[in-house]
Each structure stands twice: as C-alpha cells, then as structure tokens.
Write a structure and sequence with these properties.
Order of helices and strands: EHEEEHEHEHHHEEEEHHHHHHHH
Structural class: alpha+beta
Helix content: 40-55%
CATH superfamily of one domain: Phosphorylase Kinase, domain 1
Shape: globular
Strand order of the largest sheet: 1-5-6-4-3-2
Radius of gyration: 23 Å
Largest sheet: 6 strands, mixed
Low-confidence stretches: 5-10
Strand content: 5-15%
CATH class of one domain: Alpha Beta
Distance between the termini: 48 Å
Amino acid sequence: MTQGTTGTAHERPADALEAFLREACGVPDARVAAIDFPEDRERLSVEVRFEDETRDPLPLVVELAAGDERGSQAERLAVVEAARTAGVPAPEPLGACEDAAVLGRPFHVLRAAPGSSGAVSTGAFGSVGATLARLHGVRPPWPGLEALEDPGPSLGLARVTEMRARLDALDAPQPALEWVLRTLERRARRFDEVVLGHGALEPAACRFEGETLVAIERWRGARWAHPLEDVACLCLGLEREGAGRVDEPLQALVREYGVQAGRRLDTEELPYWLLLAATEHAVESLEGPAEHATPRAVLEAFSRAEAMRASGAAADLGRIGGARRAFESEILSRAGATTRSAGERHLSALYGDDAGPAGLSRFSRDVRDGVFDGACAQGARVLIVGWLEETLAAGEAASDTAS
C-alpha cells in the first residue's frame, strides 16, 4: 500500500484519479476507462485499463472521506490491513490520499472485491461466523491500530456517552431515545471483552461465492468493540431486508465461530447489543437530511427496549421480537388519535405551565438523569408513547403531503 499527500486538481475527476494511480499507487500505465462519480455517494466504482491491451481491466473501489470523518485515510487502511493479517478476506488496499484537492475530499483506493452481496442461504452465515472469529482475534494493543479510540472498560457505557453527545447536537429533544439510552446505561456491564469490530456489518458489506464469504467491505465504522456488536448489526440487517426469523442464520454463525475460535460465542447478552445497534441506527437516521429522518427507527429502538423489559433480559430473541412487533403495532394503530392533548396534560402535571418544547426538553433531560427510574417510570412511559404517536402521525402526514 502506498500513500499520497499532495496532488494537482484536474478538471475531470478521472484525470485526477488517473494521475494519482500512476504516481502514488505504482500503476504507471493506468488509464481510467470508466468512473461512477455521483455527488451524493462516497464509494465509487472505477475500471482501470492499461496501455498494454493484453492485460485484463483492473476494477477498483475509491472510498471518499465522509464530511464528519475523524482520522486519516492511512489510519482507515491500517484497519483493513490488520483484518487481512488476521485472515479476514478484505479488499487489498492500494493507496491513500490525504489531499482534498485531488478529488474534492481525501480518499483511498482498494482493489474491488470478488463475489456478490445478494440473498444467500443460511449455510453461508457459517462462513461469516468463522471469519468473525478471525477478525475478533485482533485485540488491543495491535500494531498499526494505535489511532483507534480506547473505549474504556465498559463498551456499553462508552456507546451511551457517544450517542448522548450526538443527540445533544440535534435541534429537537428525543425523549424516547433518552429513555432507551438510560435503559442501556443501567444494564451496561462494568467490564467488557474488547476486539476489533467491523462497526457496520450488514449483509450488504458481505460478498459471497456460493456459501463462502469471499470479502467483507465498507470498513469505515471499524472500532474496538464487543464481539456481539458485529453479530447484532448483522441480525438487524437481516431483519430489515425481510429475511424473516434470524434464528437459523444466527445458529450457523455461532456454530462456526466456535469451531474457528476454539470457544463458544456466548450470545446471552445479544438482546442488549441488538438494542444498542437499533439505537445507533435511530440516531443516524436523525442526523441525516430531514427528508430521510424517520420516526420509525426511533419507534423500533423504544419498542425493543420495552419488549426486553417486559420479557426479561434473558428471554430468547423470538419472544422479545414478538413482544416488540406487538408493541409497535399498538402504537402505530393509535398514532394521531388523541395524543397531543394527552402528552400536554402529562407535561403540565410535571412542569406546570411549561408544556411546550421547553417542557419536552426538561423531560428529556430528566429521563437522562434517571429522575423517572423509580415509581414515576410508568407515567414517563405514557408520556413517551404519546409523544411517539404524535411524531409518527406528523411524519405520515408530511410524507403524504410530499407525495
């Protein structure tokens, strides 16, 4: 892998990339034959041809830095190199460019991975499990990964702190997510096993040939993590893709993980990490463009927290999932009915005349601070459900108007 820090801006992105490949990536006769460069994407597909026409074209992937990305492109590729060293099939890094003048943002170049990311059979997830066991063999300290942030002894508490900071940066209070984060905070362990996690291991990041995993892509979110964070992310991805029950894929993953690691992957705490992953997804949905924000993601996280509370943390995934879906259906069926006046009455009972946005902000802060952990918990839940129903109704109305 090579690294470039300077470059000359070109009128055409293909020219700029071609110059970088020739000068910094050791491909002196590279010629960019095709490049997919839409403005709203950060992952570009590139086809490189050579002056020697007998050589096969070289498919590449160019990943541009996100606007809020921390760390250098070289640090991102160090994660990919560490994964490859551990035996994880990850794309081969070719070069990193920190100079935003070349393509408008810093970027790095990878050899395109083989395989496809379409629907796969249950057996394919055994291959994912064996690969995750190898990835999770990378633990701190690891040479080249010094730039990864140390989360401290409790990964659950670290994630809660991070998500609260992200909620603070939003314009509107989010009492439902504050309730979920308080639940995660109270259930967090003081010490967690720490491994290298992919950070965004959804099915779209996995490429297969038959039932064999041949590549894991999209390493932007890699971080020190709990082993079950990657498993939870994959399970949620399967749910959102309409794969139905995740029991069989999960069993195949856990079985082959244990064979590769030489020890059983303990999934007792998986409901906790599923809740955390759903909460991260909800926060991400609120951070994006307003037209893409969806209260459904917030509803999913809150419903999952309530289902876990009602079913017991040690309940199986099927029982918790059934309770979550029933809870969501109940809220959706009532959305927009009489919630506004009910919510205002509860806020007035708590904060006097301050039943508007300021009262909602105070309520959200009190939820975060644990004011409603005890005898007042049920009243707080009623208020949050009312707020959710009103928010969902407003979202549906806005969607209908836009269409």
